[in-house]
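B., you asked whether I could sanity-check this one before it goes into the benchmark set. Here's the sequence:
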Amino acid sequence: MNFSINTIMKGITASVFGAAFLLTGGTAFADYSCKSATFIVPYSPGGGSDQMARRLVPGMEEALGVKVNIVYKTGGGGAVGFSELHRSDPDGCTFSNTVVPNVIISSKGDGVGYEAGDFEYIGMTESSAGTLMVPKDSKYQSIDSFVAAALENPGMLTVAGTGGSGLSRWNQLEEVLGIETTYVPVGGGVGKMIPMLAGSHIDGAATGANHATKHKAIVNSILVAGSNEVPTLPGIPNEPDWNYVITWGLMAPPGTPADVVETLNAAMNSAAQSSSVQEALIKGGYVPHNMSVAETNAFMDAEIAKYAD
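And here's what the prediction gave me:
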């Protein structure tokens, strides 16, 4: 599915639905029975999931009428946090980021205790194209020079990514480019990866364009996944055969009642559609999304099928 302009247009219905929720006296949110809410972030502070949580929390607190507490449960490429959510009570008082495809890839690990299809998906708010970044002072300031060095010295260049999910996406680009490098898995998220780039401890890193945009003073981008230019990274070449898109949203524990999921979706969309959040997303190198629960479930079904093997 193409979740770009088409998704935003299809999401107008969800936006109107969310606005209607807010304008009918707030009865749906009045039925939200939690005294407070817990927002599990499965990656370290400073990463994309943490940034998303901090953008959404003020608007969700206003919509739900309760305090929303951010709790970090990091490790295992997100698996620790996802497992924590999986074990949580399905009462709507606890939810977490979902990061696609991370939640799908991590579910295939030994002993994680969850399947990607177990969760109740609330909605998706934003996505970002994969980007290959190098340190600011790197001698590889173009994809051509990077590939040439990798071909000349197979396995010698080091490229970091987020755990096992990052490995599968980097392996795809290696195959497309016909190169061999050494992958460096970084636990806890991109927040721990940026200092490695800043200190030139690695030759490159593959993560979202949002991070490349935020850290332009530290890194240079040399390749963007897909066919669409990222407005915040003008002039960076694309690789259409690199199918790397990160999508962020929210999910609830298995068995959370459908009406509670709809309430959380309305609160999430209310927060995400504020002008300040939309402006931050666009300036930050993201593509904003506005999705109903039904659209989100269709998206997840397609993504889970894509990674079935």
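One thing to flag: Residues 48-64 form the longest helix (17 residues). Otherwise nothing jumped out at me.
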